[in-house]
Write a structure and sequence with these properties.
Layout (H helix, E strand, L loop, with lengths): L2 H22 L6 H24 L7 H4 L6 H15 L14 H13 L4 E3 L4 E3 L4 H36 L9 H19 L3 H21 L34 H9 L3 H17 L10 H8 L3 H11 L4 H17 L9 H7 L5 H12 L3 H7 L11
Antiparallel strand pairs: 1-2
Helix pairs in contact: 1-2, 1-8, 2-4, 2-8, 4-6, 4-7, 6-7, 7-8, 10-12, 13-14, 13-15
Amino acid sequence: MTSIWQAIYIGGLSIAFFLFIMIISKRQKTAADKILGAWFFFAVIHLAFIAWYASGLAFEIPTLIIWQLPFPFLHGPFLYLYILFLSGQQRYRWPCLFHYIPAALVVLILSCILPDIFVPGQVGRVILSEFQPIFQGIVVGITISGIVYVLLSLRLLGRHRRNIVGQLSNTDKITLNWIRYLILGMSTIWVVVIFVNSPQALYVVVALFIFFIGYFGIRQVGVFSNVIPIHEVVPSAMLRTPLEGLKDGDVITAEKVKYEKNRLEENESKRIHAELSTLMKKQECYKDPELTLGDLAKKLNVHPAILSQIINTKEAKSFYDYVNSFRVEAFKALLLKPESGQYTMLALAFECGFNSKTSFNRNFKKITAMSPSAYAKKLQIKLQVTDRT
């Protein structure tokens, strides 16, 4: 084994173990944290198996290396369930155990056939021909599992993106890169598994993946560190459940969800909508750059799903568009004040609740069909020009 291979093996294992220690050291671990911790635990063991195999030492104890076969069936479910719980899209926890059935089946199969699987050969031991179809089937299953869970994870990412727009008033600083990196890394590993028949190449890709997610995970706030949430962000599963009379263990159906939503009487809906409009205008809640649907629901003492429904039906807008329409109108009003001439356009935008130049330009143009600078020019208003919008 060359020194460079040794460095890669030791480095991959060390980083994986270090990330495992970091995640289990968090004081207040969420369900997603626990899933990530379990994933890193099994990743450390799997990395040790791959390094052992890639080094050639595995041929000395071929029976033991067979036990690395269940591990590839774990990584897809861990990726999927981590994203599921991280984005708050789960309703129940116990059905998640079904995702680990393939790995358990492989363990059971190996337990049954392992005593009779090997015969002495010219080089170590070889697998009996009658057991070859079983291992070929396991390899096919590993490939299918990898592809399916990557696709399922991409689907979760799409849902999470839509949920962000439905709950957050500013999305530019809400990065989905952490989830994208996980999916991209797993996709790369499965490409190597499918198209490159090299244990060394597989280990290099897995080790680089560990380095990759370690680097970006540490940079991503809240993944390996404790963060106290300031704003109310509701799990997306809560926005898809009935709005009244929820109890643990209740059976939820699509018909029941529709029925419960329709139970919100029109008079009650109008009252909440009026209170919402008053709250936004008098307290100017939109000036909070991090305002969320949960924040407003808490102020109005209503369920977030009810508030979301009212905004969608009464305003024909998403929560994101609803709040930013107030910010645009506030900017237009602020622009007309004489004292605003001493400020830049971006400074005025920040005063109205926008948190980035990109978000300001995009939302202003979406609502007014012109850029902020074109709008100011139309009104013949001159501002400071240290920023260009």
